[in-house]
Specification:
- This protein folds into 3 domains: 117 residues, NadA-like (Rossmann fold, 3-Layer(aba) Sandwich); 115 residues, Rossmann fold, CATH 3.40.50; 88 residues, Rossmann fold (3-Layer(aba) Sandwich), CATH 3.40.50.10800.
- 44% of the residues lie in helices and 16% in strands.
- Strands 2-1-3-4-14 form a 5-stranded mixed beta sheet, with helices on both faces. The protein has a 5-stranded parallel beta sheet with strand order 6-5-7-9-8, with helices on both faces.
- Helix 5 links the parallel strand 3 and strand 4.
- By secondary structure, it is of the alpha/beta class.
Length: 365
């Protein structure tokens, strides 16, 4: 059995190699493989990795790109595990999907353990009766929970198409159970005009989520208690301080931020939306962005005619999981497919997860 290589134990020729050497070798390998290789890079990746993308985007956009690949034999994901799992589920069996760094996970996804979600579902259905609730999982979730959604008539969403996913669920005439990100769920519900007293919060730390039968019966939306450890770093004090420092400031934030931050921002949207917002802004604009620092840094570099800053000021809001992937990881993967992190979702899981992901792509069109 091949050893499970990751950033901590790459062979010395990669681990201690210079970035310039790695770049040369990656470029050579890309040329050798041609259209047999597709490299998918998430917006939060380091600037030096973005250089080698075949497709750059958010989790929704990259899922779409994975689903339409025809010639590629190797799909390498510079992102985190749930993204690579989705790519494997959405691609044909003759394609191999690799995660460039085996240790890159997602703390938010880990906040919704399979057993806990199934237990909550059993409780909710025991109170409301069968076929009264539809599960909607954020892309930041395990393949097993995506399969859970597919099995019970639900779907997946990203921050790009959460609005459309909510609409899909409500058209079914059912209550909506959203997990794992409470903030994206609440901000989307607010945008849809759902009264706050119709939003229930399922606290996974409490018995039955801390909810009574009356509370479930009254709710239109039931939110799981997960969150993004990166986006909860943004707060209203930062907004006040930045507006004081820059009177003409535009503030744009990701919908994983708390609702009080979203309420005070000038605009809110997915990573792809943020990129477009900055690109389309007038020269001379000053824009504070409430999202991961690698994206903010890249936008500042790529838009020198504008002042691009982090909403968090001097606080370095970096996703450590996204940051784990290095040029060394990518080069090792491209040169050692037999030893790299091959992502293969079990067939019984992929079957139902595919249903939920295909619904996501359909409602997002």
């Amino acid at each position: 059995m091949a050893p499970n290589y990751n950033i901590a134990n790459l062979p010395d020729e990669y681990r201690i190699a210079s970035d310039s050497d790695m770049k040369k070798r990656i470029a050579v390998r890309k040329q050798e493989l041609g259209d047999k290789l597709v490299i998918l890079v998430h917006h939060y990746q380091r600037l030096e990795l973005v250089e080698f993308n075949d497709f750059l985007g958010d989790s929704y956009g990259l899922s779409k790109m994975a689903s339409i690949q025809k010639n590629a034999e190797y799909i390498v994901f510079c992102g985190v595990r749930f993204m690579a799992e989705a790519a494997d589920i959405l691609t044909d069996d003759d394609k191999k999907v690799y995660l460039a760094n085996a240790t890159a996970g997602c703390p938010m996804a880990d906040m919704a353990p399979n057993d806990d979600v199934y237990r909550s579902w059993e409780f909710i259905e025991s109170v409301l009766g069968p076929d009264k609730v539809i599960p909607l999982a954020y892309m930041n979730s395990s393949a097993d929970l995506k399969a859970f959604c597919g099995k019970y008539g639900g779907l997946i969403c990203t921050s790009s198409n959460a609005d459309a996913a909510f609409d899909y669920c409500f058209k079914q005439g059912k209550k909506l159970f959203f997990f794992p990100d409470q903030h994206l769920g609440r901000n989307t519900a607010n945008k849809k005009g759902i009264p706050k007293n119709k939003i229930a919060f399922y606290d996974a730390r409490q018995e039955n989520g801390g909810l009574t039968a009356a509370m479930l019966d009254n709710a239109n939306v039931i939110l799981w208690s997960g969150y993004c450890p990166i986006h909860v770093n943004f707060n209203t004090d930062q907004i006040k301080q930045q507006r004081k420092a820059f009177p003409d400031l535009q503030i744009i934030v990701h919908p994983e931020c708390p609702e009080e931050v979203v309420d005070l921002a000038d605009s809110v949207g997915s990573t792809s939306y943020i990129v477009k917002y900055v690109e389309q802004a007038a020269a001379g604009s000053t824009i504070a962005i409430g999202t991961e620092m690698n994206l903010v840094h890249r936008l500042a570099v790529q838009n020198p005619d504008k002042k691009i800053i982090s909403l968090a000021g001097s606080m370095c809001v970096v996703c450590s999981n996204m940051y784990r992937t290095s040029l060394q990881d990518l080069c090792f993967t491209l040169e050692n497919f037999d030893k790299a992190e091959l992502i293969k979702v079990p067939e019984d899981v992929a079957k139902y997860a595919l249903i939920a992901l295909e619904r996501m792509l359909e409602v997002g069109q």
